[in-house]
Amino acid sequence: MDYFDINLNLSKEDEAIRMAAREFAQKVMRPVSRELDAMSAEEMVADGSPLWDFLKKAYELDFHKILLPEYYGGEGISPLQVHLVLEEFAWASFGLSVQLLVVCFPFYVACMVGDEELIETFVKPFCKCRDGSIRGCWAITEPDHGSDILAVGEECFESEKMRGNLQAILEGDEWVINGQKSAWVSGGTIATHALLFCQIDPSRGFAGNGVCIVPLDRKGVSKGKPLEKIGQRDLNQGELFFNNVRIPKTWMMANPDFYVPFLDMVLAAANLSMAALSTGLARAAFEEALAYSKQRIQGGRPLIEHYVMKQRIFELFARTESCRAISRAAINLNFNISPPHVEYSLWAKTQCTEMAFQNSHETIQIWGGNGLTKEYIVEKLFRDARATLIEDGNNETLARHGGHILAETYPRKPDTF
Ligand SMILES: Cc1cc2nc3c(=O)[nH]c(=O)nc-3n(C[C@H](O)[C@H](O)[C@H](O)COP(=O)(O)OP(=O)(O)OC[C@H]3O[C@@H](n4cnc5c(N)ncnc54)[C@H](O)[C@@H]3O)c2cc1C
Question: Is residue 319 over pLDDT 80?
C-alpha cells in the first residue's frame, strides 16, 4: 500500500531511493523469498536456485553496498536513506534482507578501521562486484558460546575459564587459526569472506579476542551443511571450520587491547540494522491485518466495522510507527557519531524486534484460521519475526549489556552526546 511517512522533510533523493528499494522489494524480493521459504536449506543454495538470480539483481542495483562510504566505492547514502531501504527490504523478507546486509559486513567493518591494505585488498573489489560473487558473513557465535561471547561486563566474559571454540596464534608474520564457528553464521555456507572473531589471549577470556578478515578459499577452511530452521528460512546459515588456516598478520583488525570497543561498534551497527528491518516486518503485518479486516465478514459486516477490531488495528499501527520512530532515532544517532552510544542500538533492537513480533502474532490472530495456512504470507511473518528475538544476540543478553553500560557510564554528561 502507499504509505504516509511521518517525516515530512523527505527530500526528492530520499523518496527516489525509497521507491527504488520498494520496487525491488515488491517485484523481486518478496516472490523469491516465498519460493525459497518452501525449499529445503540445501535446495536453496543449490545451482539453479532463485537465490543466485536474486543476489545478482541486488548487486547490479548496488544494494549490496548501501552501508559503505562513497570514497571507497560504496553508495554513501545517509543514515535516514539506509533506514528507508532496510524498511522496504524487510517488508518483503527479513531473511533476504539479512543476507544482503551480511554480504557487506566484513567490508563495512574494514571501512570503519580504514586500513589502506584492507581497503585495496577487500573493500574495493567488493564494491566493484556486480554479479554477487563476493559475499561476506560475520562469525562470532560458537557451538559452546552464544550469549557468553557477547556478555561484556559479566564475570564470564573476562574469565580465563572461558575457552573459545576458535583460537588464533601469531607465528612470525602470520596468524594461524584453528577451531569452528556455529551453524548460526548467516550466509555462512555461501560466503567467500568472513569477519571472524577469534580468541587470541585466553587468559583474558573473551576480552582476549581479536577480529580478522578471512577469505574462505584459504587452505584449511571447510563448511557445514546449510541449517534447517523454522523462521527466516530464506536466510542461508551454517558452520565454518578452520584447520591451520593462515592469514597475514595485517588482516587482524582488532586485538585484545581494542577488542571490547570494537565488539561494541560491530554490535551497535548490527543491532541498528535489526531495528530498522523490524519496522518493515511490523508494517507488513499491519498491512495484512488491515486489508483482511476490511475484507473478512463476520457478524454480518467487515471485521473492521466492529469496534474492538478498530482498537486492535490501531495497536498494530501504533507499534509500527513506534518501531519506525525508535529505529530512525537510533540510526540517526549512532551512524553519525564515533564511537556509538551502544545502549541506543540495544534499545532499538530489543524494542523493535519485540514490537514486530507482537504485530506478526496479533496479525495471525486477526486472520483466524487463515493466518495459519501456508497459502498466505502471514504465518511466514510470524516465523521470521520469532527468530529476531534471538538473532544478533538474544534480547535478554542485549538488555543485560545495556544495563551494564548504564551502570558504568550514566548519568551521561551532555557533552558526551
Ligand atoms: C536468525 C539468526 C541469525 C543469526 N546470525 C548470526 C550471524 O550472522 N553470525 C553469528 O555469529 N551468529 C548469528 N546468530 C547467532 C546468535 O547471535 C545467537 O543465537 C545468540 O547470540 C544467542 O546464542 P545461543 O543461541 O547460543 O543462546 P544461549 O546463549 O545458549 O542462550 C539460551 C538462553 O539462555 C539465556 N541466557 C544465556 N546466558 C544467560 C545468563 N548469563 N543469565 C541468564 N540467562 C542466560 C538466554 O537469554 C536464552 O534465553 C544468529 C541467530 C539467529 C537466530
Answer: yes
